[in-house]
Write a structure and sequence with these properties.
The chain has 14 helices and 8 strands. The chain has about 325 residues and is α+β, with helices and mostly antiparallel strands. Bound molecules: zinc ion.
Length: about 325
């Protein structure tokens, strides 16, 4: 483990939740399809499929056919339960249908290439392991190597590396760089630390304005901004401070904004398995502001929506308007 002399946050420090970030528990349309199948299960477990379908018809009329839009499977399921009368739905243990539904949903909503390795380290994990498992000597060796490289940079830009003001800069910068990239040696499992709780809250949860400080992998200069994370639980909620910490894990490494956004969304999908996740990030890139096009007010916005946020425009727009981005026309 590398020892940081710089200001290193305690991993269990509750203040790790950014003070400027606020959490919103918004009213939302819960995933109609899952909710629908839950109702169906309840109805059929009493053997009362007529009542159930009546309810659903009412529901469709009420929500303007939205549940019908995503509810192809639940509609066909209802028909099946009526036409196949020989098979008593009460034979099925309660909740079985719901489980099946989640299983079917899996390949669509889970990321095809998980961002989390088998042991909880986030990919790419080779460098991560080397940093995590290094001895004190190896850590000193790493620091010395970095110092040499930074001294070379000082020489190359025309500085005198032995000048008093910059004499310790290689050491300081090496340590700062290790801090900026500490996400490489953090483990998602340690961060989540069993803070996933069974809760029948299936409405949208949003943590917005999470401050992000990351390094552009193309220029090694910072990009900073705000991230907004929303999810709709599937009977499990995650400790609210864990979302900014997952965002920090992925931002404290060399990144491009698009990938950072996607990795945070995929990681939450992976550890929590909610109905859906939405991540939006707005940021300003110093490589754009200080060099290149020098557009100081330009903001880059990236988003990644998974699960029900991807399937349902209404849910997506509700998230976007709750985080202050106009959802219409997207
Ligand atoms: Zn850049």
């Amino acid at each position: 483990m590398v020892h940081f002399t710089g200001p290193r946050r305690d991993d269990r420090d509750p203040t790790a939740l950014d003070p400027s970030s606020s959490s919103v528990t918004g009213v939302s349309d819960i995933d109609d399809s899952v909710n629908g199948s839950e109702k169906q299960t309840r109805g059929s477990s009493r053997g009362d499929s007529k009542l159930s379908s009546k309810r659903k018809r009412r529901r469709r009329a009420k929500d303007g056919g939205i549940s019908e839009m995503n509810g192809h499977s639940s509609v066909s399921k209802r028909r099946t339960s009526i036409s196949k009368a020989a098979r008593d739905p009460r034979d099925e243990p309660p909740g079985k249908e719901r489980k099946k539904r989640v299983k079917v949903e899996g390949p669509d909503t889970r990321s095809p290439s998980p961002v989390i390795d088998f042991d909880g380290l986030s990919r790419p994990s080779r460098g991560t392991r080397e940093r995590l498992e290094e001895s004190t000597e190896q850590a000193a060796e790493r620091l010395e190597k970095m110092r040499g490289a930074i001294r070379t940079i000082l020489e190359c830009v025309g500085e005198d590396p032995d000048r008093e003001g910059v004499l310790d800069t290689p050491t300081r910068y090496a340590k700062a760089m290790l801090f900026f990239t500490k996400g490489y040696q953090q483990n998602v499992r340690d961060i989540v630390n069993n803070a996933i709780f069974h809760e029948n809250h299936n409405e949208m949860v949003i943590v917005k304005d999470i401050e992000i400080f990351s390094l552009c992998e193309h220029h090694l200069v910072p990009f900073t901004g705000k991230m907004h994370i929303g999810y709709i639980p599937n009977n499990n909620v995650i400790g609210i401070s864990k979302l900014p910490r997952i965002a920090e894990l992925f931002s404290r490494r060399l990144q491009v904004q698009e990938r950072l956004t996607r990795e945070v969304a995929n990681a939450i999908m992976e550890v929590l398995k909610p109905q859906g996740v939405a991540v939006v990030m707005e940021s300003s890139h110093l490589c754009m502001v200080m060099r290149g096009v020098q557009k100081t007010t330009a903001t880059t916005i990236t988003s990644c929506v998974l699960g029900c946020f991807e399937r349902k425009e209404k849910t997506r727009n509700e998230f976007l308007s709750l985080v202050g981005l106009n959802g219409s026309g997207r």
